[in-house]
Design a protein that fits this description.
Layout (H helix, E strand, L loop, with lengths): L1 H11 L2 E4 L11 E8 L8 E6 L1 E4 L2 E4 L1 E7 L2
Parallel strand pairs: 2-6
Antiparallel strand pairs: 1-4, 3-6, 4-5
Length: 72
């Protein structure tokens, strides 16, 4: 319940979370911590999210820390 209220307040003021598994890796907004082979994932996409990123009015405050799928 607290997380919901906080998320609504953030969104109302222009702060958004990003970094979901399956998104295409973008070095401008994501920080790759590691690469790993995954037969079910597409190479170059995010497979794991360690920390979500935050944007304020389309500017990156904190990049998302992610694990990227590499070709097997």
């Amino acid at each position: 319940m607290t997380d919901d209220g906080l998320s609504k307040a953030f969104k109302k003021n222009g702060l958004e979370k990003f970094g979901m598994p399956g998104e295409k890796f973008d070095p401008n907004i994501h920080e790759a911590l590691f690469e790993y082979p995954d037969p079910n994932g597409e190479a170059g996409n995010i497979g794991q999210v360690m920390k979500k990123g935050f944007m304020l009015n389309s500017r990156v405050l904190r990049p998302a820390e992610v694990g990227v799928v590499k070709a097997p």
